[in-house]
Amino acid sequence: MNIKNIGWNNFFSSQISNIEKDQFIPARVYTRHGKHYFLLCEYGEIEARMTGRFLHNAIENKELPVVGDWVLVNFIEDEKKGVINRILDRKTIFSRKYKGTRDDEHIISSNIDVIFYVAGLDNDYNPRKIERFLTLANNGGAKPIIILNKKDLCTNIHAVSEEVSNLIQNNDFFIISAINEMDFDFIKKSIPSGHTAAFIGSSGTGKSTIINKLLGFDKQKTAETRNDSKGRHTTTNRELIITSWGGMIIDTPGMRELQLWADENDLDSAFFDIKKLSENCRFRDCTHTNEPGCNVKKSVDNGIISNERLDSYLKLKQEFKDLVLNQQMKKKINQKSRNKTIFKEERKNSKKKKPM
Ligand SMILES: Nc1nc2c(ncn2[C@@H]2O[C@H](COP(=O)(O)OP(=O)(O)OP(=O)(O)O)[C@@H](O)[C@H]2O)c(=O)[nH]1
Ligand SMILES: [Mg+2]
Ligand SMILES: [Zn+2]
Predict the structure, then answer these.
(1) Which pLDDT tens digit goes with each residue over 71-121?
(2) Where are the beta strands (DSSP E) in the chain?
(3) Ligand 1 test: best mutation among 152, 222, 224, most atoms within 8 Å of CB?
(4) Does domain 271-356 have CATH number 1.10.40.50?
(5) From the CA of 300, how far away is ligand 3's center (Å)?
């Protein structure tokens, strides 16, 4: 396998030292089952695990490989097995916050060029979810594209289309019916050979159905959407699939929530209209809640932006503030933990050096 066909380029090759070149081969993670990683490399598909040291030193979740990552592997050719030594820096990521109290970054996939957010035009459609997605996508560097699926179940396509086009600025969006659509060229064109796209969204919105149509055969299992909020979670694993035209696709399990993982600029670019309007607020640090001379509030009263959009912005802003605070606290804890590991290793090494 020529690894250039699966996304290998200068960004990654420039990260490898000459010593590493002699010891390791680069490989891309295409799926993972527990501690078993399945990789693609010049020798084809191989299975790999992490070194004990790697696992031991990984304090944060983002320090472990995810689907899409490029890793350096110590490859044992006879066994077709490898040991992962390190992860190469990621070019792009799509992350959310781990649900619940564990304030950790959850990288859903890495080194993706495009990220498709699939929403179902049945009961899943919610413009607030699209705003949230765009904020997260802005953080990771991949190009966001929105697919509104199940057009056949929607009676007010015109209104939805108008609403979404007001939310997305220069980003693309498509309204489709995956079960009826014959031509998927518009999606294929966004994933040229050597490029990688990930599909994300709630369970049952049709991600796997779209992927099967793109592939031309039913590779991914699909199942009827449940009518309650639980969803079915038909896809249970992330997997990178190489298509016949050379583009790569990552299917992901449905997500109920996209908790914020972003920085302030990401929020500003997703809410570009609010950002612009706020330039004319009387106070520079206006919170757009109850200050006099707030141009954002005035614009809500004048119908320029909706109250829901402003609420959504303020909610994300608060989430962002909480995230920053928690991160500062966590950084301190992690640093302590790292210092402890370094201290232990130093002690171990100094013991080894002692003469017998
Ligand atoms: N009516 C209608 N149903 C669709 C459309 N696209 C997909 N479906 C149906 O929606 C259901 C869920 O589709 P999946 O492709 O399994 O959804 P998914 O997003 O992969 O779900 P998870 O794997 O659970 O995240 C299936 O029964 C599909 O046949 C569409 O355009 N219209
Ligand atoms: Mg699926
Ligand atoms: Zn204001």
Answers:
(1) 999 998 888 899 999 999 999 988 887 765 556 778 889 999 999 999 999
(2) 25-33, 36-41, 44-50, 70-76, 81-87, 93-97, 105-110, 114-120, 143-149, 172-175, 196-200, 239-242, 248-251
(3) 222
(4) yes
(5) 11
